[in-house]
Amino acid sequence: MRHKPYALLVTVVTLFAAGTLASAADDSPDGQVVYKTVDNVKLQLHIFKPANHKTTDKRPAIVFFFGGGWVGGSPSQFYPHCRYLASRGMVAISAEYRVKNQHGTTPYECVKDGKSAIRWVRMHAPELGIDPDRIAAGGGSAGGHIAAATGTVKKFEEPSEDKSISCKPNAMVLFNPVFDNGPEGYGHDRVKEHWQDFSPMHNIDKDTPPTIVFLGTQDKLIPVSTAQKYKDLMTQAGRRCDLHLYEGQPHGFFNYRDGKSTYYYQTVIEADKFLTSLGYLKGEPTMKNEARQ
User: What is the CATH number of domain 5-277?
Assistant: First the structure.
């Protein structure tokens, strides 16, 4: 990784100074900043901030990772989630990371980038107006795996980074996440040489962050039994894991869709309540389930 401190400070200050240009009703980010440069690829964080946010604030934050099987996808998947959580007082971020179609990478690089993103946000919390002890990771499908991996797996770190700064989030918000990369789990053929180190389910311990999980009962990629096993293992480790099942819903049911986003609203409201219970947010959710069936 290569950073120029002065250039970074100017970028971050410009980011927050320009934030008022974005409407709170607009799903476009308030700004973007490069968090990692690797093999001439610049990876950015797409940042949404609360109204009247200042760099001197100490706001809670969340970093989302998009889904796409470690092959493709876009940070825009979580723009609606980010805009809502920013309206509730969080600095909400949707992260870019390397994927196979665009960068020719493996799932291992996806996890490395996820860890780099969390570490970078914590390292630069003072410039971003973020509380370094209230950083959540979120994501869907393979992005849910990346988020879960930042909170569980010990390996797949960039050797050049400062390991004294933790890449472990303080909480996790996971939508139909890939938990199990074992022989019967998702993506095993792509990570089988290192699956035991790569699989979140097989790396739960007493320090795994409190977690909320959303899953449809008709998900053909992530069985309900897998999520229930993950919850059981978390409970055995003395860790909190809230599991919300949605009857008859398939993979990706939680995404925002114009005109038909019932489960987007339902899951985000539950995520709000979870984050409130941890002290990240205050009061009741301001979102109402107004989507048409």
Answer: 3.40.50.1820
